[in-house]
Amino acid sequence: MAHWAVIIPADRWATERLFHHDTVTVSGGAGPVEPDDEVLLVVGGEVVALAHAAKADGDDLVLAYLRRAFDEPVSAAELALDEDDLRIAPVDPEVFRRLAGGLGGSGRAGGKKTWLVSVALPIEAATPAEAVRQFWSHVEELGPGELPTYVWPSGDELAMQAFVLGQEANQDPEEED
């Protein structure tokens, strides 16, 4: 089994931060990576996930997530990658183990807790069913770029935070960002 670093393009990374997927597909990334090889996913000079190569679909590389550290990435400086010229690079096994071991994130046993997530919209409608239809239309139209989503640990409503585009966002119009 070989060890690789794969750089995720910025547009694909934006989608990965917003939606939970079991796999990520890297266009044109099949190259030398074989099924079951281990891969560090790199974005903007940081290692954001550990994955294994699931399969190649034509010229596309399909990677299955093993551990995500989207919110607490590890520096990829040790890899010395040039993101402008290179998308896939072999990684020394010792460096790979060190970087993979530094990844916390989701996927580790016991690292999950229960969160409550809510989207609230004031909707004027004649019936509850009509309100629900309008709600889903607004969610689809506004999406994660405009619609704040509220999240808090179960049982701690005072810790509620608003998120827009997968990042914490201040929703108080009287406070500066």
Labels describing this entry:
about 30% strand, 7-stranded mixed β-sheet, Ribosomal Protein L25, Chain P, 3 helices, 2 domains, alpha+beta, 4-stranded antiparallel β-sheet
Brief account:
Helices cover 21% and strands 32% of the residues.
Detailed description of the structure:
With 177 residues, the protein is α+β, with helices and mostly antiparallel strands. It has two domains: 99 residues, Beta Barrel (Ribosomal Protein L25, Chain P); 54 residues, no CATH class. Helix content is 21%, strand content 32%. The chain is elongated. 20% of the residues are buried.
What is the C-alpha radius of gyration, as a whole number of Å?
Answer: 20 Å
Portion in beta strands: 25-35%
Distance separating the two termini: 47 Å
Question: What is the level-2 CATH architecture name of the largest domain?
Answer: Beta Barrel
Low-confidence regions: none
Number of strands: 11
Number of helical segments? 3
What pattern of helices and strands is seen along the backbone? Answer: EHEEEEEEHEHEEE
List the helices and strands and how they pair.
Blueprint: E1 3-7, H1 10-18, E2 23-26, E3 38-43, E4 46-57, E5 60-68, E6 74-75, E7 88-90, H2 93-101, E8 115-118, H3 128-146, E9 149-153, E10 161-164, E11 167-168
Parallel strand pairs: 1-3
Antiparallel strand pairs: 1-7, 2-5, 3-4, 4-5, 4-6, 8-9, 9-10, 10-11
